[in-house]
Amino acid sequence: MKTIITYLALLVINFCYSQDIGQLNTSDISTVFLSSFSTDADTFIGVDDFENYYYLKNNTLYKKTSQKTYSYTNTQFGKITSVDITNPLKILLFYRDFNTFLFVDNQLNELTSAFNFTTTAFAKNITFVSVSSNNNLWLYSQDDTVLQLWNHQTKKIQFTSQPLSFYAHDFKAVEQLSSYKECWLIDKNNLLKFNEYGTFLEAVKIDGYTQLKPFENKYTYIKNKQLFYQDTVIPLLTIDKTEVAVKNYSVQTNRIYIFDGTKIFVFKIIKNK
Predict the structure, then answer these.
(1) 0.90 exceeded by pTM
(2) Where are the domains of the chain?
(3) Among 137, 146, 249, 255, fewest CB within 10 Å belongs to which?
């Protein structure tokens, strides 16, 4: 009996560790500096699959290609709250103050008219919007703290979650991320993950992490002004032994793009295991 109890205790401990992002076993990675260039930006949005750069300056969205820089400004709806470049041919802009979103194309021309969520049947203030598959958008509102999957063409709700406190006590999202296949909601202490059908996948404990981003089925994040890959500090984010400050960053398949407030630094990711 004592042996069985000990074995069960070890299983419980192992399970608890597996739910804490800082305790997972990870494969080591390292980086090699490739290049840098100056960027006059307030916020670095990221890099798309075609290696085009997106950033915000004075509430204007910019896209910088190898040949040209495009821009989009709309003064009707206040401040741009978020930009989703998951599909670089159909970029989502969200204006929270006006409860409004719209799409622009790969040259930052308007693809659709602006849509105000107040006009929908479930009219409420939307806190976060991000892209999913099949013309669906992930919507989160602090009015009711639920996650919804909503089709922007049919204007129909595909899925509504339980109140997120059902998955993590007193959960109130401060950030939302998504891909075509998954959605992540983050508050000060937890990360909640859902698949494209709205199925809840996992809750992960976090502590003092900011700018958390999925990468290689795991996560990168900023903590104490350092960039981490799970529980491992990503090494060599230095130029001539000078540490690169991280204001915003983006992670792609084999690149990390760091914005320090004046420059974007490009590092190659090397998987050591």
Answers:
(1) no
(2) 1-38+208-273
(3) 255
